[in-house]
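Known limitations

Files may contain more than one protein. Parsers should not assume a single record per file. Below, a two-record file is shown to illustrate correct handling: read the sequence, read the token line, then continue until end of file.
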Amino acid sequence: MMVRREDGAGGKFMHEFLKRHVMSRFGECRLGEISLADMDDSSDFDGFVFTTDSYVVDPPIFRGGSIGSLAVCGTANDLAVMGAQPYAFSLSLIIQEGFEVEKLERILDDVKFWLSKLDAKLITGDMKVVEANVGIIVNTSGVGVKNEHLAKNLEVVREFRDYPFGWIRDCGLKEGDAIIVSGNIAEHGVAIMLERGFDFELDVKSDVYPVWLFLKDALDVGGITAMKDPTRGGLANALNEMAEKSGVGIIIEEERIPIREDVKGFCELLGLDPLSMANEGKVVMGVVEDMAEDVLKALHKAGQKEAEIIGYATSEFEEVVMETSIGTRKVVPPPMADPIPRVC
């Protein structure tokens, strides 16, 4: 048996691989509320959350960002969707011999820029130079901290129902919770494809962005019960994970999913599902029904003008189901793997 590309591509195959080979050995490990087997975006210890991620995007510099942008924002976003404020980071570089120093400096400048926007610190790291044909691989780990925004959100949620968690968990959905997407989907995946020689005149950039910069305003309104950032596997994967872990179904409306028409057309032309395309600056969240409109207004005010309520959690079924633009319903399955290799 050999490891396949699909085993690390963020979809159903990767989840099965991790459960079989990793969680079977380490799944019960925990220092706080969240075990490794929970497969949440981060895990916790002593009032902090901790996450790590490795980035292999090709090309390493692309329209709208670089592997440095992805490394900081992607790791920060895994912390932020737990309700944690990004605080401290590590940075490890694996660089192919002969890699251009000018490109490396651009990547490191992006790391510095986004850390400064987050008011977070880089406190440790490592570097290796190798002969293998890897270009550059970046690993970042991050620590997030509890904060007044998270506390306010949990206080509001508990006005409506029992919520046993100390962080925002992707298993926190209940029947009736509204599902909100913070902005247009599929732009990162399309931007990477355009960098790889597709001859389309599309003005599309990666959406790479640290979601904490707008999430804290939504948390101040309160009522958020579950969150994920829809990276590999896109919106479809995020929704299916939230539904499965929460033990509910989710119904969404196709016409309410925010997506640019040119991005949608690009995906249709190439036979790609935009719901499975990677995003790097978006959040999918569940919100107590009575607070959904207020949270949506807070997102709009914080600059997320395309944020939209796309559906709700239901006990009617267990799957993710979409009401299509032609009035039918269809199941939205979890993707088997990301359709684009080395996208993040």
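...continuing to the second record:
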Amino acid sequence: MKRINSVVLTCLLCLAAAAQAAEIRDVRFWRAPDHSRVVFDLSGPVSHELITLSNPSRLVIDIQNTTLGADTKSLQFANSPVTGLRHADKPGGALRIVFDLSAEVQVRSFLLAASGDLHDRLVVDFLDKGESIEAQVIKSVETSSQRDVVIAIDAGHGGEDPGAIGPGRVREKDVVFQIASRLKERFERKKGYRVVMIRNGDYYVGLAKRRDLARKAQADFFVSIHADAFTHPQANGSSVYALSKRGATSASARILAQRENDADLVGGVSLSDKDQVLAGVLTDLSMTASLDASLSVGAQLLSEMSKISRLHSKRVEQAGFAVLKSPDIPSLLVETGFISNPGEANKLKSSSYQSNMALAIFEGIDRYFRESPPPDTYFAALKRGDTPSGQRVVSGGQRIASGAREYTIARGDTLSGIAQRYNVPLDDLQRHNQLSGSSIRVGQKIQIPAS
């Protein structure tokens, strides 16, 4: 009888231990330009140990008191140093996961605790060869007297972080990446700009690193593109936000900043990566100048955005957005609409609205830099009336290239028709006249470049 009780007790203890074991419910893989990321979704907190092995290269992860409940057979590790994943149970309830690698890599791992709707996660990063986990030093470079204005375009969220999700499962990260890509195309069509995309695909970039990438590129302006969300589906409209030195200008701005600043918890950034922005930086003179420029550009953006969308706020709101805390780069966060609103969600996922929103953002930023260009840029040279090679400047700052002819728009003219008449590619005609679209007006003077 005692032996039976002992067996029963042992079984009960085993069942209790099994009940307390964590389970890996899902495994996901993301590829970024400088690293590969594997995320394990967990039912509870775990402890783990990393072991790197050579000949052949492998990474071993021992996770204590854990079971694997996810199917890993469908995982694809394209364009990464990971060639495969294996797993086995170890004595004592531990789970061993082995990553086969094509080469030795630098590895880091960290745990993200459950928060809100998010479960515990184990994040493993494989850093590409030649890259460093440490922040890279930003080096200044000598610029020419007529350099391009550098625009850093940041599509919010990405990868592990889908952002807000609207009706029909439309995801913020997808919508804003499309708008950002269309905005990039707009700037690339106009002489005098160079574009830096903060993310070029579906992967997450930490908020501090987004700023660091813009500073590394020595950007003249940083714009972060998002889509808003609220608990009530009736909320609607577009808005523009800048950093605040004192506090949020409204309750909605404060709530939005908190939600956007929490993106690192969703996207997978360890606590050690959290940006430590000194309060003093917000009183720095360079920050004051950057904020003034940000507010000026923001006013231009609102003016353009009001032509295609209702404005949720008719002024540039301000709050403590982490992604905007670059002391030397004018920066704005643009909410392109409420993805939680069914009507605006439909607009946000449409190519026509995405193009119109990209155009509005472009027009606002472009107007600012044409009116207030950095002194060493192409736009500053045009404003001063300097003569670029092979060009002459006439009244009003209009430039006429050598061999070009001037044409006055008449009633019934179209830009495509003029291009066809003079046997000039439409793109060349637009670029030569710094036109962002095909809109022209009667009496307007344009130049026909030499074919």
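Parsers that stop after the first record will miss the second one. For reference, the second record is described as follows. The first strand starts at residue 22 and ends at 31.
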